[in-house]
Amino acid sequence: MEAAFGRPLTIVSAQDMAAIKRARGVPDDLMSCHTALIGAYTVEGHVPPADVKRLLAARPAGVRGIAAPGMPMGAPGMEHGDHRAPYKVIAFGPAGRSTFASH
User: Fold this and answer.
1) Taking the model in full, what pTM does it have?
2) If I label 15, which of 34, 82, 83, 93 is the partner at 20 to 30 A Cα–Cα?
3) Beta partners for 99?
4) Contact 29, 8 (CB under 8 A)
5) Contact 52/37 with Cβ under 8 angstroms?
6) What whole-number distance in Å separates Cα of residue 58 and Cα of residue 103?
7) How far is the C-alpha of 92 from the C-alpha of 66, rounded, in Å?
8) Across-strand partners of 42?
9) CA 54 to chain centre
């Protein structure tokens, strides 16, 4: 992400990440291993940088964040040679859920 955004990121370790995820409105079934807080948005899991950039540019109404649930093979940080598994990035918020991107 630092390379994609061209600047260092602040990394904070917290004891109770589940509480932070719940406070930011991440549905239980979309929770993953990493959580990024970017202004009003939450980015959960191994979301590609291009999807984060699109979220920040579009600022879709009713969306609190995007999530790549689980640890899909081929997602950023989950590369394993040429092995890829299809996965979706899900937008979530007060308006419900929708597919934000398919990979």
Assistant:
1) 0.87
2) 93
3) 90
4) no
5) no
6) 19
7) 6
8) 37, 65
9) 12
